[in-house]
Amino acid sequence: MATANSSAMMQLHRSERNMFSTSDDIVMMKQIQATHVPDGMGVEVNSILAVLTTIEDVLRLSTPNLPGVVHGSQAQPDAHEEKATKGDFNDDLKRVAYSVNKISCEILCKCSGGGDALATTVAIFNILTNYSWEAKVVVALAALAMTYGEFSLVAHLDPTKPLAKLVALLKQLPDTIEREEMLKPMFDAFNNLITVMLDVTKCIIGFKKLPSQYIRPDMPTATADIPIAVYWTIRSIVACATQIAGLIEIGHEYIASTTDASELSSLAHKVSNMHSLLKKKLTVCLQLIEKQKQDELFQTIKSLFETPQVDNMKILKIFIYAKDNQPPLCFGSAERKASVDVLRGKNVLLFISDLDISHAELSVLYQKYHESRKHHQFEVVWLPVVDWSTPWDEATEKQFETNQSAMPWYSLSHPSFLDPAVIRYIKNEWRFNKKPMLVVLDPQGRVANPNALHMINIWGSRAFPFDSIREEDLWKAETWGMGLLADIIGTPVRDWTKDGKLIFLFGGEDIEWIRKFSKTVQDVAREANVTNLQMIYIGKSHPREKVHRNNTTIVAEKLSHTLQDLGLIRSFWVRLESMLLSKIQLGKAIEDDQIIREIRMMLSFDRSDQGWVVVSQGSAILAKAKGDILLRCFMEFDTWKDQVAPKGFILAMKDHLHALHSPSHYRLILPGTSEGIPQKVVCAECGCPMEKFIMYRCCND
Hints:
single chain; alpha/beta; 7-stranded mixed sheet; 5-stranded mixed sheet; 27 helices; 56% helix; disordered C terminus
């Protein structure tokens, strides 16, 4: 960043030397600087801006073909009339009215007959001697606007009206409508010069508006540039006034020469180059100031979270910024607006995501939200994090509105209500990186849980109030077993667990293995007189058409039970992954926690291309293995069936399975955006350290 700024500064300095270091400029500026004796009673920036706005309106309405104006248009008359009646605005004009009138007379008198432009310019500077540089150029522009506005007003009055015709006759004004083609080169150059004069004036005022508390020595300076830019702008005003005076003086005999247009074009080029340099410098200053403001706000946010608060309002009003006094929140759809005050003293769950939220992710949270709201009071607020370096177009707006309308909770009225410093805090401190997260703030605004999505996926409404203490307590009550593993499936697994059934939970996508495994187990169960066997197929973590076809085949051939709802299959795996991430978030060591080890094994099964099986009796998990090992165990039933009578079916099966076991190696894929992912992970099977790779996977994979 520092290198980029330094390079930009060097380029600006080179441009500055090329632009303003001519000998004529140096001599001329000494004369102009001698007239500059500000009295410290200058016009305030807000007053200058108010006057400039009126100047711009007058010039645009007076000038044919100027950008934003239709020739002869009286656009927005109500706005101008309203402004003219405001007391504050009239006070602004009163401060400069004398100087405006005096300069108007000066330029009309001295520019008539082709007076000395330099002498007229110096005379204007003498009138403006006590004004600041930005006030000088605005007052001079006001004089031009008044002069040209009067000319244009009479020239464009309805010629059928006697008063208009007589005034035009007395002033000997040319018929600009009839001679528009002849006057076009001059008016084109005139229009262009007015545009660049307004641009450079706004830039000069922009430097004046820079907040002094953020000005630093390493910022680009325009101290030497602004007086030169003011001089050439006022010199251009004199040139414009000369053209107006020429029209009034010569009247119908006036012939627009290419020399007149050339002089205006030359001045426009010079002023435009000055504007370009000043704008570059101003842009750099604004960027540096904005960075300081963002750093300041970032530190304020950190300080607020580190300092005890009476309630959550200070923190939430920074996170949820009321832009232009608009209600920053809406409920459900954009039609129901709300202020941040509706969140006062409540548990607030900040749902943070980008705009690419999958329907599956949103539907799971939707279900858990409604389930929890039946019993507990809390609020959810969606904070959409948007990358503003990419264009915000209609498609993006539609995507935001679609997501917003699908949410039965509060959301920001627009992503722009989320300040860049807040986004920085969310990314740096809360480690947000595309993966949705749910940060819990208690009624005092403290972070009660850095991401409650995991515990909500695991326990639903039982997770309330969704803080880390509750998460710890819930884990203390859990033990590894079919009850924890398959609770989300509900009936029939819950009933089987309660009744102590022998449960085979299996997955994978190879229908030939599924068919062979299911039939073999059923045959062995009949031969061994096992009557309490139950089997259920739960597919893959990202169920697609293949899992759907497998379900259809399994039901048709009566191979086992299935989960026909693919969303329920997805939820099973999401919940399992949430268990792992919840444990990691709480700081549990992977090697020391049995539940983590078991979950890792399950996730490794799912990431492989083979089938797999978990066997339990009731809630107690007896065995788990890759599908080919379990299939071989049952296909070799003849070698261990003699052990069923003395040992029982389960123990005989376990002993033979153990004899078949050989060390295997597994893959474990965790979301790259997950918080607290450990640097070292050992294989759940062999205990060796696992290599870490970077994998890119499509969200639809």
